[in-house]
């Protein structure tokens, strides 16, 4: 089961990324002088207060319209463009209401005119716990189920760079932990940028941690042990508390 | 002055000469009438509106009054505007149809008015043809264009005083078979109809007197009368109207009030033979002479 | 656009019957109250009698018109859908062809009639073309509007997935625009019969439009209204059919009628 | 439905000019290639000359038609919107009135012409009524479809907030349905001129429709096409205006043209 | 500021609620024999795995369509109907896209034909941290900002019963804590039913805690101290860990 969920193709090498520059909405600066390095083949976690521009950063990497003006550079270590090699999971689930679960999970293949790998899709759907719901349309799914469909869909995409915008926010603690493990396993070797609000999640998954705040970007050292980390290891717990306070403690 | 509403059969054209001239020369005013003239696009509407009491008079066609009375519309012919058929079977002069007999196996266009099949049957029977020998095609809005472009070989329902000139101006010479020479009983092309229950005979008598004067004026002064006619609206002042005017003058009824009983009886007979009406009505049900009764 | 989709067939039948009764009563009421004479608007009873007396004649002509309408509707819908899709992929088509299309739509068909008959003759082709022409623009316009209003999030997603514009159109915009296509198709179902009838007026020797003209020419208002009634009844049936089909086609689109 | 809303006025003007040139070339090409005689379809040059020669005459008639169209459009849009809203609140209206409306729409206007003139006379009223009648149904149909497709989540919310059906209609469904109303209005802008022209055919002594029929009857095809051209140009201008206005009205609705 | 955000009207008494019965989707049972008591004037937190039926329970209380069949009873301690006295915040933000922030927050008043209390709306908008964004439409807001607008809107509703479906899920840790405090303050004395995935949140806010699982409802004792509780109080931390394990530890 877990092998079937692994990508069918050999892995393309995952580059490091970097975003530098300023961004403003009609003159109102969102961030300036930002320099965000994403290291190759690992999980970089981006945290920060609501509305600070995390999703905007993700959309910039994905080459999507942000409604504002970006003045800077987005580059990959191998010198080739970024936006064509990404898989993107947005903050809202963005399921096609007319497709059932299988249809949504295999949408990428159909959009590229490839034959969808149905076996892999079914395996992933089983892994995200929706085996009994394959032919339901999004309207008949709960919020967390919808998010898991979107997760399965992004995991189906076999891309070297993966951008995840709060992919586990609608899930209960247990399902969330399982999904984190699944994503970590499937995305091994990829360059992953994860936006999250959950310090525990960041500490559990991140090779590198950044906090984006109104006053700029701060790097936070990740624990020494490699992810994926045990939730209740003392090192993790301590780190989590530190991170939590780093996030909460900023002056109001 | 007494107000009066007259519905034309169609847009203003030289056929309406006496009405326009009577209005412009003040003959209506002299009779103490203030006549409002309204033009529709669908010739079947005015008789209905007159029957419904929405106007005093309408310009219509003799063949129509027979059908309308048969269907129970409260209408009667009270005057004549054009006292001979204008309708003709029109072909291209250089086309294949030289005689009626040449129509065998060909297409004849028409614009549905109700009696054209009967007319064609009458015309064909003179030359040993039946309706099965031709194909009738409803070309509704485009009689002249369809014959000019060769889509049909002939059209019935074209007016000899209009469509022939129209084709000539477009550079296509046309020819008319006059249906009253080909076996159709003759009839009044344009008549005035009124609702016999609602009409004010005295007013109609005055109206007809004014148009009679206008007709005389037109006959006596063809050029001046055209100037007056063309001066009423800029869109009327053109080559076609000019040619058509000259051709129409001799068709106006010189005695608009006079009624030829025989004509109406013969036409009623003709329609009965062709199955368009079921019973023969006395002429007094169809037409009256308002000046005597 | 039809009654709630949550009704049973029996309820629908009952509603339809009520609608018919209300319509006939309205019609009769207008005839009585306005005192309009029967040669302008005959009452339902007179029309019913005429319909019964001429049922064979009317049915013969109706079959011709129905065939024209159905063929015109199918081709018009296909052509309209293809045009809307094309407008979506081609900015040039959008900027250049769209104004031309609007321009051509504002030309009343009677002006095109001689042209159409010149090219297509007096057979069925010109009537089908007329039915097609009359529904083409509503289908294009509503479907194109629907295509345009696709959730931008889904389009972003398609883009990150490496979709070509054509595949985005087929797999994202097309299904997202289907409810709007349904709107257009329902309009088309109402107007296609008028298109065919106008086509018949332009030149024909059969069909309900021809029969109406003939009846009008012979001052047989009853017969004209009987033909008209059959035409309108056919339009309602066609509308119900198209409504049902489009509803099925877009069952995922959550229409919220009973929850107001 | 119009070119992208992200274009500058200069670009729009350029596009419009290109559209005009393309349209005229197409027209000329048809005339040359098909060898259609000028009494059926005159070329653009002939029509332009006729237009220039008769500019005063055509302008006089055009003003009448424009007035009829604008009044008809305003009233048709208001009446159509009110009907769609009413259909939404009243299940009875939906089940009974809707089929009757479809039925009445399928009756070609020419059949109603004597009735309309009987009631409204030969003045402007009957033309306005005709323009109104022709756009009424497209507005009702598209707007009603839009009202029906409101996000059920928002309706649930309104319900929990203790809204009456009427207020839900006004504050939730109405704004949510505005983009669809815009679709209907754009269709209406194209068809209202045809309505007015048909009204003029039924009986008038001025207006572009009158001029066209007159020209047609006199085989002055050039003049007819010149009038037709002015009518169609007016329709395009009206469409552009309505398009702009409805776009502004629904600026929140995210239309995704350039992101395909 | 915090006083302005308080309801203008005197408080109506908040009843206790109870839901008992079975629920199925086209024959597939979602829960059966459920008996969920919600005590008066306090926060009851409902946790449980994704897709178990938490949102369904909330919608049943709200009297909304669930797409399934409920066979049971919903009652209030004072004997009057429940659905007409609730304020409801759904799992998705359900903002009206044509209204700006103020318009969305005051939607309820307009829907009831009342004059919106603009001063209170502005105060609440300021409290949720969106003072600088009052005239933005939802499309120009970030995910967390949209959720805060929805929160301000439900807080504007002056109702004795409040149903919240993961109201803080899209917020970063710090904003989340602030919003919890705001909600707790404004909803004082109300009967609140909170669906959440975050054990820390449940422990922080709940007078009563329930876990809904496939095999039924379990009551979990809340800490002895009254909410709102300190996040890092030892009692809270311990409870949180217990709850977390209760949630994760179910057999797979
Ligand atoms: N219309 C429907 N038809 C069939 N099943 C449905 C329908 N709506 C919801 N369901 C099912 O009901 C179940 C419960 O959904 P609900 O939204 O209540 O879950 P939940 O506990 O809120 O989950 P989450 O934490 O993911 O939001 C799900 O399994 C879902 O698939
Ligand atoms: N189209 C737009 N016009 C103006 N401002 C916008 C627009 N889109 C987004 N913004 C603003 O950009 C800012 C950053 O938004 P973004 O979605 O990147 O935040 P975020 O960090 O992802 O927040 P969250 O954690 O709440 O999702 C917000 O303040 C938002 O108001
Ligand atoms: Mg975000
Ligand atoms: Mg839920």
TrEMBL record, chains A, E:
Gene Ontology MF terms in the entry: ATP binding; ATP hydrolysis activity
Highest taxon above the source species: Bacteria
PROSITE patterns reported for this sequence: ABC_TRANSPORTER_1, ABC_TRANSPORTER_2
Span of domain ABC transporter: 12-239
Coiled-coil annotated residue ranges, if any: none
Keyword annotations from UniProtKB, A to Z: ATP-binding, Nucleotide-binding, Transport
Entries under SUPFAM superfamilies matching the protein: P-loop containing nucleoside triphosphate hydrolases (SSF52540)
InterPro entries: AAA+_ATPase, ABC_transporter-like_ATP-bd, ABC_transporter-like_CS, ABC_transporter_ATP-bind, P-loop_NTPase
Gene3D superfamilies listed in its UniProt record: P-loop containing nucleotide triphosphate hydrolases (3.40.50.300)
Homology family: Belongs to the ABC transporter superfamily.
The protein, known as: Putative hydroxymethylpyrimidine transport system ATP-binding protein
Protein's organism: Stappia indica
Source taxonomy: Bacteria, Pseudomonadati, Pseudomonadota, Alphaproteobacteria, Hyphomicrobiales
TrEMBL record, chains C, D:
ABC transmembrane type-1 domain segment(s): 58-242
PROSITE patterns on file: ABC_TM1
The keyword Transport is assigned to this record: yes
One GO CC term on file: plasma membrane
GO biological process terms on file: transmembrane transport
Subcellular location: Cell membrane
Family annotation (Pfam families): BPD_transp_1
Main location, first listed in the record: membrane
InterPro entries per UniProt: MetI-like, MetI-like_sf
Keyword Transmembrane applies: yes
Protein name, as recorded: Putative hydroxymethylpyrimidine transport system permease protein
Protein species of origin: Stappia indica
